[in-house]
Amino acid sequence: MSATAYLIGLGAAGAAALLGALLPARRRLFGAGVLSAAGCLAALVGAGQVLVSGHPFSVHTAEVLPLTGVDLTLDPLGALFVAVTAIVGLAASCYAVGYGAHGAPSRTATAMLPAFLATVLLVPAAASVATFMIAWELMALTSLLALLAEHRRRPETRDAAQWYAAMTHVGAAAILLGLVLLATHADSQSFAIIAEHRRQLSVPLASVVFVLTLVGFASKAGAVPLHVWLPRAHPEAPSPVSALMSGTMVNLGVYGILRVGEDLLGGGVLWWWLLVAALGVASAFFGALHAAASTDLKRLLAYSTVDNVGLVLIGVGAAGALAAGGERGLAGLVLLAALFHLVNHALFKGSLFLGAGAVQHAAGTRDLDALGGLARQMPATAVCFGIGALAISALPGLNGFASEWLLLQGLLHGFASHSAVTEAALLAGVAALAITGGLTATAFVKALGVGFLGQPRSEGARTAHEVRPSMLAGMALLAAGCVVLGVVPGVVLAVLGRAASAGLAGGAPKALRPGLGLDLTSLHGAIEPALVVVGLLVALVVAWGALRLVPRPAELRRARRAEAWGCGRELQTARMEITATSFAEPLQRVFADVLRPDHDLEVSHAAESRYFPGAISFHQRVDDAVERLVYQPVIAAVGWWGRLARRVPNGSVHRYLAFGFAALVLVLVVLA
Amino acid sequence: MTGALATLGAASPSLWARIGTSVLQVVAVVVGGPLLLGLMAKIRARAEGRMGPPITQGLSDLRKLVRKEAIRAEHTSAVAALAPLVLVASAAVAAAVTPLLTTRPVVAGGADVFVVVYLLLMGSVALALGGLDAGTAFGGMGASRAMTIGAISEPALLVGILALAVQARTSNLPGIVAASLAHPGWLASPQRLLALVALVVVVIAETGRIPVDNPSTHLELTMIHEAMVLEQAGPDLALVTLGESMRLALLLGLLANLFFPWGVDASGSGLVLLAALAVLAAKTAALAGMIALVEVSTAKLRLFRVPELLAGGFVLAVVAVTTGLVTR
């Protein structure tokens, strides 16, 4: 039953891609959107059954792929990722119907969204090396094509696609190498048989496999320093595709690390997981800092994805390290917290990316320095984006708070373990969690306050309009998820617990009492977000009511509007408002050592005298320091090597004949 | 420790009694906050050789402000009206769950460190959004500065309290206070002393006192908090002022009870609660007096030196946790 629902879902998403490619332009969007939404619902039902019952299903067909066949197995761990993808996919499919309706959507763009969705639904179910690699590469290919949808209008898209293609293929090659090593060792490509043979694997070989696959999976997840493609590709994709990339595709990097590290390799040794946690700490800090400094709305969201993936990886690393140290119950709890954060991140980041798409659609730009005042023209979008922004800032009552609290509890109680190295890693995780909290709040106060409040800073922002209902429905679905999981986080714990125990091979999470809130009885920690929300509402009403009760003359009761204070100066314009760049400037100055902003100040002088400046121009860019310091030298070296090699074939036939002769002599000498 | 929490659970008074205690805590913070501000102003004035306003000046100001006309800047949205209310509400809920008078939380486990710190963050975010809502230069500038300082001080606050949480093996605030009461020897432990220094720095930053911010400045360019609320007037300003003073009272009360937990009611009748209230008032007044004396004797730091101070606080907090782990 669950297998049927899941396969119907896959099939429907695939059929939606075909419809998108075949239907005439007017019906294309609607047909593809409805069918892929239906596919998401079916896949959600299938994955939900696996999650609720805890019984995995397996399907094997020899007909689809020659030589190897297709092996699909959906266990609770994979089912969680399928369910998250299905929910974000449902919202993105609804949204895409309205999103494409303004321009004339091309066949490829319409078809690639459901095709990409289908591959993301497929990867977590793949149960053999061949199936996994094919699904993985199909995902890379379809997302690349989906990313390129707007390449005619935006030349930056090509650059982003190049980075993405290069990074994802290097990653895929590393994963393939690692999995092939495993398959050769087990003499079978089935994940189940590989997992059975894991005990005979020597530690050095297992470590090589783990590190190789980690390179691939961490680059898909966007972990620093393999993240450089992410802040380029996610912003350049059409917004429903961005939401799918940030909300679902990066998750599969985490899935891969868990599947290979815990399931196929059986947990391995401590340092693997410390490495994962270190990647997490670096990503969390670097991502949060760049998000706080970014002024492009979607770039800000992309860096915030790096940040949140970092938090999840801290959890995964800590869970692996605790499990390697024998603390399975606690490890299960930490992994549960990490998976919870991953689910929450999919919800709020999906809603934020869809909101950013709505802004770009309505105002024609996503540069925060040119936005402002959108809450007036686009109130519904502002509310959905606002919920996402406050949720990601971990404000109590929304879902980001619940999962960060749980993660912190897990890390805190991990201090009771008796390995000094693990403790140091946990401490770094706690510090990263704390410091990203403040930075994320700053980044999203900037996004919300500069983008949606204040006065419009450009004509586009002034004439913006609310977007279509189907787009709003997509955003509202995910925003509602943020509120529900924030107020009653307890409802998903059982499901997450099953996924976490499947991920840790039997380490059932410790000490979570079922309920609406989060209650760690044996660890003396509990929160009841529902009561906090009730308390906040009561306090709000009491404060408001108390003000109403103050005796005041009738004419003073209504709030009067007056001009804002401008130091006594009249006629304030939007030019005097703070911009996103200025908002981020103090923080950027504080963290200048990490961000390394580029400043460029040019002063030209008046012709009459050098003492009078004619024009002053100031440019500032905050590039990715990792890209500049690590990747650019490599790219430069490859380019240098290429130029060197180009000197060899200079067009002279004599030289080519000489090469041929030399090669022949060399071969003969070697063979002789 | 386990014993301390177990007794907490076992002898819990009725729900209504606990709600009553929480309401009393909120009232104490609402009334006590403006009084603490008045006391600090008085001590500063006396130290400078002036008479200074009466201690109840803060309450009189609030009374005056709520009767005034409500004026909002043009172009503001609903956020400007909501922000002061959210600030007060978040501070009130934080006050209700913090163990100020008693170690019995209103709901078992509602009083987590994380809840209180992130409720404070909620107030800061509301104020910053309110500052940006009017679309003026100063509001945005103040919001930017306040968020920058908050971005560094919030983690220091969280990690500083976690140093105590690691020692008490729980991040439940009443649990931490109860455990400190049960183990007086902890109070002089190195991690506590380090955490105390870190938290004092943070409290000064969070409440916008000298040397981080000058609450009585009239020069817009040097303002942090004041610039952010420049557009608030009348009842809105009353709420903002009240919310800020509640945060001051809450943070000082929390600091006092975490590091000097004597007098916090662990058993429970009405008279004991009153005594606890008197002890709390004395402790917070002493802390407020010390902050006021620091304010008189130091100059405000340049804005870009403030992060160094706060980063120092954060590092101290991390060192405090490390020390706790090493000396365990």
Concise synopsis of the structure shown:
The complex is a heterodimer of chains A (672) and B (328). In chain A, 69% of the residues lie in helices and 5% in strands.
Which helices and strands occur, and which strands form pairs?
The complex is a heterodimer of chains A (672) and B (328).
Chain A: H1 2-22, H2 25-53, E1 57-61, E2 70-74, H3 76-100, H4 107-122, H5 129-147, H6 156-186, H7 191-196, H8 203-221, H9 230-236, H10 239-264, H11 270-293, H12 297-324, H13 328-363, H14 374-377, H15 379-392, H16 399-414, H17 420-452, H18 459-462, H19 469-487, H20 493-503, E3 518-520, E4 525-527, H21 529-549, E5 560-562, H22 580-590, H23 592-595, E6 598-605, E7 613-621, H24 625-646, H25 653-671
Antiparallel strand pairs in A: 1-2, 3-4, 6-7
Helix pairs in contact in A: 1-2, 1-4, 2-3, 2-4, 3-4, 3-10, 3-13, 3-19, 3-20, 4-5, 4-10, 5-6, 6-8, 6-9, 8-10, 9-10, 9-12, 10-12, 10-13, 11-12, 11-17, 12-13, 12-17, 13-15, 13-16, 13-19, 13-20, 15-17, 15-19, 16-17, 16-19
Chain B: H1 2-10, H2 15-47, H3 57-67, E1 71-73, H4 78-97, H5 113-133, H6 137-168, H7 173-182, H8 190-206, H9 225-228, H10 234-259, H11 270-297, H12 306-326
Main sheet record of chain A: 2 strands, antiparallel
N-to-C order of helices and strands of chain B: HHHEHHHHHHHHH
Give the rounded overall mean pLDDT of chain A: 91
Oligomerization state: heterodimer
Q: How many structural domains are formed by the residues of chain A?
A: 3
What is the overall shape of chain A?
A: globular
The total count of strands of chain A amounts to 7
The number of distinct helices of chain A, counting runs of at least 4 residues, comes to 25
Largest sheet of chain B: none
N-to-C terminal Cα separation of chain B, in Å?
15 Å
User: How many discrete domains of chain B?
Assistant: 1
Proportion of residues in β-strands of chain B: under 5%
Return the average pLDDT of chain B rounded to an integer: 88
Strands ordered across the widest β-sheet of chain A = 1-2
Radius of gyration of chain A: 27 Å
What is the beta-strand fraction of chain A? 5-15%
Unreliable residue stretches of chain A: none
**Main structural class of chain A:** mainly alpha
